[in-house]
Automatic annotation (TrEMBL):
Homodimer. This is Acetylornithine aminotransferase. PANTHER family: AMINOTRANSFERASE CLASS III (PTHR11986), SUCCINYLORNITHINE TRANSAMINASE (PTHR11986:SF113). One of its GO terms (molecular function) is transaminase activity. PROSITE patterns: AA_TRANSFER_CLASS_3. The lineage of its organism: Bacteria, Pseudomonadati, Pseudomonadota, Gammaproteobacteria, Pseudomonadales. It comes from Azotobacter bryophylli. N(2)-acetyl-L-ornithine binds at residues 144, 283.
Length: 406
């Protein structure tokens, strides 16, 4: 254990940090691919991907090269000037998607904030101030700003911060009739995650997204897809909307876009983008050269047939083994999700024990996540080696065996 690592201990978190997180008892200090080492030199397999962020694992050579090269050129100039990495990244995202305009920011919450503001602005300019209502799904998650947390349908995150933002309605996910009953000519936008993330890795049904698109068109409302977690290859397509063939008006993304470097974006069409004219919305750090250079390298690697097909193949490898573990130990009733976003739904007798699985996994040198109390979530590197999948799931089995046998 090196001297600088010995100087900082986990106990210090409780003395120096605001207590809004409860991090694990160990401190990771180094990562390579899908392996992580803690202060004591213990090696863990990482199936968390930094919560679907480390799209190419830890310390991917292409990302290190992109960051290092840009670090020697230009870090920040503000949006009083543009920069080359921003323009290159925007072009690549637009060539690969439905969009022809991009806006860059620093996080998923900021991307959604921009998407919701743009939707309200478009409706305001085109139809007048009365058209501002946003419809979202119950148990959705769109970020932690006051606006985004109000749009997300989880009161536990939005209660206790004073008056809520008005004009937001919530309907059950995958329930087209409920959406049809709620939408009106006052609706400026419907926002949906193609796969509900935080509430349990729940994919949208094909007919639901198709119906949402039709309803939005009928009522002059914009369809916003929150692809913060599902975007940039996570599902086996560059964006999840591509699986469904349902095209949104605005798409927000972040997490995996920077492969670990903070960046967020919204993608949209020219006729909508023009409502964000000069001065209407902004950000100091958004589109900074470092973030955009790294994100460009992520897109270059991920948006290739071999990587995207590999993600789908790895999904099948995970799923087969997870179903086997689920059946053998009676712990999982269902394995759902797409690509490298996988939800292991706990069976009736094990309901509420997702956190226990996390703790047991860590004791077996494995990092996993939860999505609510009833679902164990895996969001590993999109290029995780098959050997790491196999070894990781062997460790998961050990953890599950110990848990089930008490």
């Amino acid at each position: 254990m090196s001297v600088e690592h010995a100087q900082v201990q986990r106990a210090e978190f409780d003395q120096v940090m605001v207590p809004n997180y409860a991090p694990a008892a160990f401190i990771p200090v180094r990562g390579e691919g899908s392996r992580v080492w803690d202060q004591t030199g213990r090696e863990l397999i990482d199936l968390t991907g930094g919560i679907a962020v480390n799209s190419l694992g830890h310390c991917h050579p292409r990302l290190i090269a992109a960051l290092t090269e840009q670090a020697h050129k230009l870090w920040h100039v503000s949006n009083v000037f543009t920069n080359e990495p921003t323009l290159r990244l925007a072009k690549k995202l637009e060539q690969a998607t439905f969009a022809d305009r991009a806006f860059f920011c620093n996080s998923g919450a900021e991307a959604n904030e921009a998407a919701f503001k743009l939707a309200r602005r478009v409706a305001h300019d085109r139809f007048g101030p009365q058209k501002y209502e946003i419809i979202a799904a119950l148990n959705s998650f769109h970020g932690r700003t006051l606006f985004t947390v109000s749009v997300a349908g989880q009161p536990k995150y939005s209660d206790g911060f004073g008056p809520k933002i008005e004009g937001i309605a919530h309907v059950p996910y995958n329930d087209l009739e409920a959406l049809e009953a709620a939408i009106s000519d006052k609706t400026c936008a419907v926002v949906l995650e193609p796969i509900q993330g935080e509430s349990g890795i729940l994919p949208a049904e094909q007919a639901y997204l198709e119906g949402a698109r039709r309803l939005c068109d009928r009522h002059n409302a914009l369809l916003i897809f929150d692809e913060v977690q599902t975007g940039v290859g996570r599902t086996g397509e560059l964006f999840a909307y591509m699986h469904y063939g349902v095209v949104p008006d605005i798409l927000s993304t972040a997490k995996g876009l920077g492969g670990g470097f903070p960046i967020g974006a919204i993608l949209t069409r020219t006729e909508l983008a023009q409502h964000f004219s000069v001065g209407v919305h902004g950000t100091t750090f958004g589109g900074n050269p470092l973030a955009c250079a790294v994100a460009e390298a992520v897109i270059d690697v991920v948006n290739t047939p071999e990587v995207l097909q590999g993600i789908k193949a790895k999904h099948e490898r995970f799923k087969a083994r997870l179903q086997q573990i689920g059946e053998q130990y009676g712990i999982f009733s269902q394995i759902r999700g797409m690509g490298m976003l996988i939800g292991c739904v706990l069976s009736e007798p094990c309901k509420g024990k997702a956190k226990d699985v996390l703790v047991a996994a860590e004791q077996a040198d494995l990092m996993v996540l939860q999505a609510g109390p009833d679902v164990v979530r895996l969001a590993p590197s999109l290029v995780i080696e098959d050997a790491d999948i196999d070894e990781g799931l062997l460790r998961l089995e050990r953890a599950v065996a110990r848990l089930v046998r008490g």
